[in-house]
Write a structure and sequence with these properties.
Blueprint (H helix, E strand, L loop, with lengths): L2 E5 L8 H5 L9 H14 L6 H13 L3 H10 L5 H22 L5 H12 L6 E5 H11 L10 H18 L3 E8 L2 H8 L1 H18 L5 E6 L2 E7 L3 H17 L6 E8 L6 H17 L5 E3 L9 E3 L3 E5 L6 E9 L2 E6 L8 E8 L4 E14 L5 E9 L2 H16 L2
Parallel strand pairs: 6-7
Antiparallel strand pairs: 1-2, 3-5, 3-6, 4-5, 8-10, 9-10, 9-12, 10-11, 11-14, 12-13, 13-14
Helix pairs in contact: 2-3, 2-4, 4-5, 5-6, 9-10, 10-11
């Protein structure tokens, strides 16, 4: 039997909301890591050496982040990665000492609770809970009871984390806000039970329409939202269009209006991004319903403004070629130069930033090249490596240009 130890003052799950508000994405995701560990703890005999082998494998996949999840699942303590790893090693040594004294095998969970009660003393008045019962209860906090989708509470914890991931990895994050067309009229004609059936079936269709990395949420009432990590606005529009068409063709005999907004092109903060997606959805309704509307009627995923900056680039040699930018964005540059580069080429760029003409270095990959007047070439590049300070300077330049500062 797999049991979880809770200290009495942690029983209300105050830290669980932040922990559980993540998405199921392999490789870089709290919930996926948690699922793997949960399966490991439920399926393996914890006295078997295979537990250590499985933990080593999970550490190889997820890094040190596996240990905070392990400690949290077993005794509900929230520890930083390095500290959790150290504590688990101490628990293993404590278990070996206990086995030596008792001259019999000691369950790792017994050693863990004894360690945190008698040695480290992080637990005060622990309570034993069956692990599967606790996980089911915790999951219910973040699920909509009717549709089975994640709920608004989960969504408001998820979006800040995905925005932080988007900024860290310099990848776009798209939201699709969805509203059922004429839902009130359907309820008035057919009753609320029929309306509930529509909500359940729509949730099923949305789940079937998205990728493993995406998250479908019941936002409230007849509104839903899709969270699409690492998704450009054009791709989000295509996915939304396919889902919209699938719903129209379904036996539901209902349609939906969808609005798409993308970070960082449309918004840089959580509330602003939600507002933009919501506004686009209402514009879809105003335009006739049963359609997808892009915020600002733009398919850009990154902000871009006209800006004339000077600099130079190098490719696999010390020889430098001067550049003059045409536009500057969060994700890259459009510049003119006298040398043509093939798409996919990797270049080192030195760029002079106003107002001091400070020279900053970055690297970028060529996306496209086209002929420009006077024997020049115009090239669009996407940043590969850029320091946070440089990105901040470019973001300020973009923001000032947009506001006229």
């Amino acid at each position: 039997m797999n049991r979880l130890f809770l200290s009495e003052h942690q029983e209300d799950g105050g830290q669980d909301e932040a922990h559980a508000a993540t998405i199921s994405r392999p490789g870089d995701c709290d919930l996926h890591r948690c699922d793997r560990l949960y399966g490991c703890l439920c399926e393996l005999d914890l006295n078997d050496p295979s537990l250590d082998q499985e933990l080593e494998h999970l550490e190889h996949v997820f890094g040190d982040a596996v240990y905070p999840e392990l400690i949290k699942l077993l005794c509900h303590l929230q520890l930083p990665s390095e500290e959790a790893r150290r504590c688990w090693q101490q628990v293993i040594r404590h278990r070996e000492a206990m086995q030596s004294r008792l001259n019999e095998s000691v369950d790792p969970r017994v050693a863990l609770i004894d360690y945190f009660l008698q040695v480290d003393r992080r637990l005060d008045r622990p309570k034993i809970v069956e692990l599967s019962v606790f996980e089911k209860t915790r999951a219910s906090v973040f699920r909509d009871e009717l549709t089975g989708l994640h709920n608004y509470r989960f969504f408001r914890g998820l979006v800040p984390r995905e925005l932080a991931r988007s900024r860290r990895n310099r990848t776009p994050l798209s939201l699709v806000m969805i509203d059922i067309d004429d839902f009130k009229r359907h309820n008035d004609l057919n009753g609320h039970e029929s309306g509930n059936d529509v909500l359940v079936e729509l949730a099923r269709l949305l789940r079937a329409s998205i990728r493993e990395t995406d998250v479908a949420v019941r936002y409230g009432g007849e509104e839903f939202v899709l969270v699409l990590p690492e998704t450009q606005k054009t791709v989000a529009s295509e996915l939304a269009g396919q889902a919209c068409a699938t719903i129209e063709r379904s036996p539901l005999a209902m349609t939906v209006s969808m609005g798409v907004a993308t970070h960082p092109a449309d918004a840089t903060e959580e509330t602003e991004l939600i507002r933009c997606a919501d506004q686009a959805m209402y514009e879809a309704k105003a335009a006739g319903k049963n359609r997808v509307w892009l915020y600002g009627q733009s398919n850009r995923s990154y902000r871009r403004v006209p800006a004339t900056l000077t600099g130079e680039f190098r490719q696999l040699s010390p020889e430098a070629h001067s550049i003059v930018t045409v536009t500057v964005g969060d994700g890259g540059l459009l510049f003119e130069t006298d040398r043509r580069l093939e798409p996919g080429a990797l270049v080192a760029i030195d760029l002079r930033l106003p107002p001091s003409d400070r020279c900053v270095a970055t690297s970028a990959r060529v996306l496209r090249t086209e002929q420009a007047p006077q024997g020049k070439y115009r090239m669009a590049v996407r940043f590969c490596e850029i320091e946070a300070e440089v990105l901040g300077s470019l973001s300020k330049l973009i923001r000032d240009a947009r506001t006229g500062a």
